[in-house]
User: What shape does this take?
Amino acid sequence: MTYFPEDFLWGASTAAHQIEGNNLNSDWWARESVMPGMELSGDADDSYHRYAEDIALLAGAGLNAYRFGIEWARIEPRQGHFSRAELAHYRRMIDACLAERVTPVVTLNHFSLPLWFATEGGWSSPHAVERFAAYVEKVTDILDGVEWVVTINEPNMMAMITMMTEAMRSGQASEWQSPTVEGESDRNRIAAALPVPTVEYARPMIAAHHAARDIVRARTGAKVGWSIANGAFYADPEHAEKLAEVRYAYEDIYLEASHGDDFVGVQSYSTQRVDDNGLVPHPEHPDNTMVGTAYRPDSLAVAVRHAAAVAGAPVLITENGIATSDDDRRIAFTSEALAHLGGAIEDGVDVRGYLHWSLLDNYEWGHWGPTFGLIAVDRETFVRAPKPSLAWLGDVAQSNGAGTLRTDEVQI
Ligand code: FCB
Assistant: This one.
């Protein structure tokens, strides 16, 4: 018995900067070189050269979709100068997927920006929309056969990255903290100090997303949407007002901007409590993940239901996973997440696919410690070592989720 539609996408996700290596013309490369507390991405997983092996491992395990990023900083290393060789590189990646019967899900921007664009002000630049549109137009030349395009990854997390960068510059924060690593971090302190921090950052990204959507629709046959970090926010009843305020600023403003998209990308890892001071850091707990978040596999279905209701669009799960060094725990987490997802689908939510974060252990935006991968990578030799979870997820895919637990069998 399966709740997953017949042509469901089962796959894994990555982001260019986190796996490719030597993203020399990007703002992240520059940031890593100067910010205290950051490790360097360096050669990363050298997936820039080893993508064919990565796609073959994914396909060989039985998965049918691969989400990866096209790196703007490579395509347009100088404003207005577009590299034909780099465009050809990403076309080869698309072809490698198609040859393996893997559906490519292409992200046009995943946090990293060309350094020249960041210097100009990045998403706050008055030219942001026109710059992004020019890049997107070039990329559409290589998207033949691509059915799924994500314009901007997690604009809401991107707003946090911009805030964090500004806080470091102004001296409000002293040590870089990855936006995806929680705990008693600068991120939480800054978020608490600025109750509704993201709206001013949201507007240009929304405009850029809509411009990109129009271009992708006019020039390709792909479905287009963007992917949102879904917090699965909750609060005690007395904090309901603050919850609504926080949820709007961190999430719903972006989900509402998905109206009219072909899908909304849901990215869920845990839940997030809110009180009158804003986000409440996850309390210390032995079950917490390597990035300090609570172990909440049920958060995926909470996020999916909320995103579908607010965005009014079909859902593609573009990220869900767990930072753990214990692969049995990854399997348990994912199995339970999928069980709850099956429940949402059974209730009528239109979900088109599940892409696990991440295919590879990778560079977690400042830190190498947290491991989210279905495949381990030796950072000296770049040798790939698939973990049991890769074969497990491949088997789930092959049975179209028939083996996953039912919600009512799951202990919450
Ligand atoms: C998401 C990012 C992704 C990765 C995961 C753990 O916020 O989109 O690149 O860092 O978190």
